[in-house]
Design brief:
By secondary structure, the protein is α+β, with helices and mostly antiparallel strands. It is built from two helices and six strands. A four-stranded antiparallel β-sheet has the order 3-4-5-6, with no helix packed on it. A two-stranded antiparallel sheet has the order 1-2.
């Protein structure tokens, strides 16, 4: 898709799946044919929390306590559902909060946090270019001297 900021910027679309050494998984789908909404689902052993970031609505759906000993394959067990209204997402406020924390000198992302975020992006690009092969962030297989057209 053409970038509204100009042809010098390249924003790729697609999906990425990450898995930690302990088995935690993250899946993000930012396909270019999704023209509306920002929704996030947090899944856990006994339920999900779905957040409509733009509407400011959070829905929690959690398996009832008495059914938790049953196998996870029994995904249709009775649950508690709760809906809450939350502050809608703001694209500027989180950036402002990080900058303010940096200026205060406390509670801001570390250089390692930034390095891991960039490594994940590099791994996603390289994985796509190499037939969607699995990439590891804790090895030296990621290119260090390559330039990417990120803003």
């Amino acid at each position: 898709m053409p970038n509204p900021r100009g042809p010098q910027f390249e924003d790729r679309a697609g999906s990425v799946r990450l898995e930690t050494a302990s088995g935690k998984r993250f899946f993000m789908d930012v396909s270019d044919d999704q023209g509306h909404g920002v929704k996030v689902t947090y899944s856990a052993r006994y339920g999900q929390i779905t957040v409509d970031e733009l509407a400011g609505v959070m829905v929690a759906d959690v398996r009832q306590d008495e059914h938790r000993p049953l196998a996870t394959t029994r995904y249709g067990m009775p649950s508690r559902r709760e809906e809450r209204h939350i502050e809608p997402a703001d694209a500027v406020a989180p950036s402002r909060a990080v900058l303010e924390a940096l200026l205060r000198g406390s509670d801001y992302p570390s250089g390692e946090d930034g390095r891991l975020a960039v490594a994940a992006l590099v791994a996603a690009y390289v994985s796509d270019e190499e037939g969607h092969r699995t990439m590891r962030l804790d090895t030296d297989e990621l290119p260090r001297d390559r330039r990417f057209a990120w803003a």
